[in-house]
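Exercise 7. Given the encoded structure of a 89-residue chain, write a plausible sequence.
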């Protein structure tokens, strides 16, 4: 499957807007993404190893934590998107 990479994260993927990844679940797909592009990892996870609140991950139209989180199964034809959040005041 392809994971869509927003422009904010593209400097860490060699400026690719899509990355071909494999896995049966969201967690496996993300692990493959970080294997290919390890510089992305600190932008997704805190130093405690917890997914950052500054990144939302959508499978098709649903945010993964409204599904089964990292254990959400991936089916043929699914689309995975990463959305950086904006914070500040």
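Solution.
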């Amino acid at each position: 499957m392809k994971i869509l990479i927003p422009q904010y994260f593209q400097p860490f993927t060699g400026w690719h807007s899509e990355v071909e990844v494999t896995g049966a679940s969201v967690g496996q797909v993300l692990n493959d993404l970080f294997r290919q592009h390890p510089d992305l990892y600190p932008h997704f996870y805190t130093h405690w190893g917890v997914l950052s609140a500054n990144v939302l991950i959508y499978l098709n139209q649903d945010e993964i934590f409204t599904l089964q989180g990292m254990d959400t199964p991936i089916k043929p034809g699914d689309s995975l998107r990463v959305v950086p959040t904006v914070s500040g005041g």
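Remark. Strands lie at 2-4, 18-20, 55-59, 62-63, 80-84. Students should compare their own answers with the one above.
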